[in-house]
Task: inverse folding
């Protein structure tokens, strides 16, 4: 789970950096405090100790993403590889979650990992904690996605995620943390606010 999460984090970070670099070269825009910014921060605690910070104005990402057509990404949408969906109708699943009351849907307490999936205050929450780490530093993943953002992502159709629509929906909410990943060798945080730099 954590190796897959780290790979996903690295791909997302690389995508964000490509978008930022291309946008900087093409536009050279500057933001105001009214703009919404998506931030990604990765802190490596290995012997190199690198920290990577990416700050992207949502408006810029919305304008640049449709210009990128590479592999699964095209016109601001990502094609979902149905081979990895394991015969799950994601749209039906999301409709059921949208209609359901707030609550804790799945709780798994195992020797390797604890998993919690819940809906709370209009957000889908996923928490995974690895029980194999030290008591002071157990790897974990926290994802908090507003339901209206999920709706926007899945508005493209059965086999696509509309990233631009998801970003547009994100722009409508206030300051929020979206993803937090803590592992033995790095921490990743993805959040949104109105600042044009990360802390």
Result:
């Amino acid at each position: 789970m954590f190796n897959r999460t780290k790979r996903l984090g690295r791909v997302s970070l690389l995508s964000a950096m490509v978008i930022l670099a291309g946008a900087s070269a093409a536009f050279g825009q500057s933001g105001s405090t009214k703009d919404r910014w998506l931030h990604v921060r990765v802190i490596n605690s290995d012997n190199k100790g690198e920290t990577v910070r990416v700050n992207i104005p949502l408006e810029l990402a919305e304008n640049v993403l449709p210009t990128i057509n590479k592999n699964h990404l095209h016109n601001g949408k990502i094609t979902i590889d149905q081979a990895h969906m394991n015969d799950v109708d994601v749209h039906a699943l999301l409709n059921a979650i949208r209609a359901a009351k707030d609550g804790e849907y799945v709780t798994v307490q195992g020797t390797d990992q604890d998993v919690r999936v819940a809906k709370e205050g209009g957000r889908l929450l996923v928490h995974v904690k690895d029980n194999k780490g030290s008591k002071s530093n157990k790897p974990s993943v926290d994802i908090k996605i507003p339901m209206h953002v999920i709706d926007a992502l899945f508005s493209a159709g059965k086999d696509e995620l509309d990233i631009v629509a998801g970003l547009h929906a994100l722009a409508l909410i206030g300051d929020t943390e979206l993803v937090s990943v803590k592992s033995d060798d790095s921490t990743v945080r993805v959040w949104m606010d109105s600042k044009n730099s990360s802390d």
About this structure: The chain has a mean pLDDT of 78. The first helix runs from residue 2 to 26. The two ends are 28 Å apart (CA to CA).
